[in-house]
């Protein structure tokens, strides 16, 4: 697997946006209904995404025969993740929520092996092990609190497992439409469903967002749903599943550090050891192997 300069640039921007978004989401949902927070972000993000598609002249049409697959991909790639994860963020610290969410690469490897017969090279297997150990270290001081709030942790793990399945499915999709069009319609469907859920469950809690909540909503609308979500779908569709999942493992590291700086969440030696393991996991995927580069004439 070899990343192009464009893919590396997309990955770098995606990592920064999603990494810093964990404490931003935590600030947004601390005193505001979580589903409503996510729904407002998506409604405001849709025009941004649509404008980008118009500027890039990406067609919106999806053949009727492909809508069934689009709906299924929406459930596994977006709907479950955005509903369940935002509820879990309200119950967990932002850093630990990020770490639990990014057990996704481990689940992806398991799904790939169980459903698609995907074999891992020794180096890729080492990356999965490094990421798994990093997750365990980052949860070292969380077991006591998780024992009192197990539902939040289980919800985040469930969301990560479903997202991992969606990544495997997206890599193998036979849909012929551009990835941006898939991202747009996934966001539309998820926004409509989340609007119904927020109205049904959180309407008595609705209130005017304060300045901090509005800032978090706008960041999610523009940076997350306007850029990061479609960028992730582009990487997930263009790269092998194990590469696309492990390559974003630096995101929880940023989430932990940003949570410590902005929200005062305490870091321990396990956090720093886990960060080193995450870097190893990333390198196991991104570092080119010997003989991987072909001469120009062969290419």
* Count of folded domains: 1
Largest sheet: none
Low-confidence stretches: 291-299
> Which class of secondary structure composition applies to the elements?
mainly alpha
One letter per element, helices H and strands E, the order comes to HHHHHHHHHHHHH
Work out the radius of gyration: 19 Å
Strand content: under 5%
The coarse overall form would be: globular
Number of helices: 13
What is the residue-averaged pLDDT?
85
Fraction in helix = over 70%
Chain oligomer state: single chain
Number-wise, the strands total 0
Distance between the termini: 14 Å
Describe what you observe in this structure:
With 299 residues, the protein is mainly α. The chain has one domain (5-286). 77% of the residues lie in helices and 0% in strands. The chain contains 13 helices and no strands. It has helices at 5-29, 34-56, 67-91, 94-101, 104-116, 122-138, 143-148, 150-171, 179-202, 211-238, 241-246, 250-263, 269-286. Helix 9 runs antiparallel to helix 10 (211-238). The model is unreliable at 291-299 (pLDDT under 50).
